[in-house]
């Protein structure tokens, strides 16, 4: 299975030049909300403008520079054509941004299909496309950065370590992984990059030459992530996020829908079919769209973001009736009624009205915010300030918990002999005069051991043995002890 990374660094510039053709050939840059240059065109770069530069400084280097705000919603809408083209070759497409998209390719000749795909994306986006293909996301992302345009880079399986050895360590800092909270976050921050520089690490190959204990002392569990990335083993799959899942049903009458009763019946049929599809997938929808087609070919549609995720036909029918009441009446006969459920997921919970962009709700967003603040003040005055708190109050207040994935009921403390691999992981152990193979290391961490009178670092391994038993092994220096066994 291959993973492909498509990188379009100048896609935002191409979108702006499509919207305003007079900008073609002119120095152009896109700026973030804090007035920093996010991306600059080739004309601006030749004048000395660089990414990350302040807009005021960029205008000194290039007085004729045109600066536009980075319009993410517009670029995502225009990038859908690129994602649809990628979806023709892959059933698993994960767009990270309008500029970066991952996809999985399988079957014979996957590398031969990469060049025509990149050429089609170049024709659709009208900008430079860099592509890289490997067996992991990180290696594919680095390979795309090595592309010089129209020449995709393919890293053969087993050659990831050799390919990544000369890559600068900054490529790890800019690589984003899926965090425990579901959000993507960078692997290394500025302070951690400084720690690596103190160790003399400049390229990824240097990571493999550093002692594992030194890396673990500075980065703890993240040290294993760094070493895996240096070998091109990030093990993060590509998620199928495009095209987004929708469930839709339509009812069409050639002679037209004559009265309100027939129209209600058509909407009821659509709601029943959509509800059956949601229940079959065991999911709920948050967004509902009703489309009405008339006899002259005119169509009208209205959408509503539901307050709670729904999969029941009755709730969908009520929402469809509300949507139909918002459609301006036309003295024409209806021929088709279509109901589409989107924003589909498995999560359930209340959708705050404050976040709803529905213009038919009572009050503008700032008015709803004022009412929310007033209600919070009343609740605090009556029940106390510590009884009710918004979700932002608990942001970044998580606490670590150790969860046992299997019961280690027999506690012990006896020395054993252990054979380790080059990474320091146990592969065999001897107990009661017999050697056993360790099939898998499920988890590992370090603890402070002060039982000897001085503070030492102790490695703890939870492993699965060939005898289908689970063990907990402790290593202090070169000494190994077994401390727990599953019955």
Task: Describe, in plain words, how this protein is organized in 3D.
The protein has 487 residues and is α+β, with helices and mostly antiparallel strands. The chain is 33% helix and 29% strand. It contains 15 helices and 20 strands. It has helices at residues 11-19, 42-46, 55-61, 72-89, 110-125, 137-146, 160-164, 170-173, 190-198, 204-209, 212-219, 222-230, 260-281, 313-326, 365-383; strands spanning 2-7, 28-31, 37-40, 66-69, 93-95, 100-105, 130-134, 153-154, 176-178, 184-186, 247-257, 284-294, 299-310, 334-345, 410-420, 426-431, 434-449, 456-465, 470-476, 479-485. A hairpin with a 5-residue loop joins strand 9 (176-178) and strand 10. The longest helix is centred in the middle third of the chain and has 22 residues, at 260-281.
Strands, helices and their partners?
Blueprint: E1 2-7, H1 11-19, E2 28-31, E3 37-40, H2 42-46, H3 55-61, E4 66-69, H4 72-89, E5 93-95, E6 100-105, H5 110-125, E7 130-134, H6 137-146, E8 153-154, H7 160-164, H8 170-173, E9 176-178, E10 184-186, H9 190-198, H10 204-209, H11 212-219, H12 222-230, E11 247-257, H13 260-281, E12 284-294, E13 299-310, H14 313-326, E14 334-345, H15 365-383, E15 410-420, E16 426-431, E17 434-449, E18 456-465, E19 470-476, E20 479-485
Parallel strand pairs: 2-4, 7-8
Antiparallel strand pairs: 1-6, 1-7, 2-3, 5-6, 9-10, 11-14, 12-13, 12-14, 15-16, 15-20, 16-17, 17-18, 18-19, 19-20
Helix pairs in contact: 4-5, 13-14
């Amino acid at each position: 299975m291959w993973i492909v990374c498509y990188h379009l660094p100048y896609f935002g510039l191409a979108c702006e030049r499509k919207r305003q053709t007079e900008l073609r050939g002119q120095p152009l840059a896109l700026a973030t909300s804090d007035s920093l240059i996010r991306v600059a065109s080739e004309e601006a770069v030749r004048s000395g403008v660089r990414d990350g530069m302040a807009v005021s400084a960029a205008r000194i280097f290039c007085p004729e520079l045109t600066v536009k705000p980075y319009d993410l919603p517009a670029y995502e809408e225009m990038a859908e054509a690129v994602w649809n083209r990628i979806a023709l070759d892959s059933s698993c497409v994960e767009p990270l941004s309008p500029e970066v998209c991952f996809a999985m390719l399988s079957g014979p000749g996957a590398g031969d299909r990469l060049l025509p795909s990149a050429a089609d994306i170049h024709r659709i986006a009208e900008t430079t496309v860099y592509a890289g293909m490997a067996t992991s996301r990180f290696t594919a992302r680095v390979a795309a950065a090595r592309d010089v345009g129209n020449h995709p880079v393919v890293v053969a399986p087993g050659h990831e370590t050799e390919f990544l050895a000369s890559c600068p360590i900054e490529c790890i800092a800019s690589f984003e992984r899926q965090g425990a909270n579901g959000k993507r976050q960078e692997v290394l921050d500025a302070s951690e990059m400084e720690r690596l520089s103190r160790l003399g690490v400049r390229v990824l190959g240097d990571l493999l030459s550093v002692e594992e204990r030194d890396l673990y002392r500075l980065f703890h569990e993240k040290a294993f992530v760094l070493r895996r990335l240096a070998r091109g083993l990030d093990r993060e799959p590509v998620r199928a996020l495009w095209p987004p899942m929708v469930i839709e049903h339509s009812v069409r009458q050639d002679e037209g829908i004559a009265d309100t009763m027939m129209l209600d019946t058509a909407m009821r049929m659509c709601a029943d079919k959509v509800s059956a599809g949601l229940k079959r997938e065991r999911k709920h929808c948050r967004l509902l769209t009703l489309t009405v087609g008339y006899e002259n070919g005119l169509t009208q549609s209205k959408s509503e973001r539901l307050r709670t995720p729904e999969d029941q036909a009755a709730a969908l029918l009520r929402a469809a009736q509300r949507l139909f009441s918002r459609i301006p009446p036309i003295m024409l006969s209806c021929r088709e009624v279509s109901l589409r459920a989107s924003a589909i997921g498995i999560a359930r919970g209340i959708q705050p009205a404050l976040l709803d962009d529905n213009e038919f709700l009572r009050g503008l967003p700032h008015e709803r915010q004022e009412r929310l603040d007033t209600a919070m003040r009343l609740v605090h005055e009556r029940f106390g300030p510590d009884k009710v708190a918004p979700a932002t109050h608990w942001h970044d207040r998580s606490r670590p918990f150790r969860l046992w994935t299997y019961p280690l009921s027999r506690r012990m403390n006896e020395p054993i002999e252990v054979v380790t691999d080059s990474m320091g992981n146990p592969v065999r152990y001897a107990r009661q005069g017999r050697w056993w193979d360790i099939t898998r290391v499920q988890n590992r961490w370090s603890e402070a051991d002060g039982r000897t009178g001085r503070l030492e670092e102790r490695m703890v391994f939870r492993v699965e043995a060939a005898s289908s038993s689970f063990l907990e092994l402790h290593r202090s220096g070169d000494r190994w002890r077994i401390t727990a066994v599953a019955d």
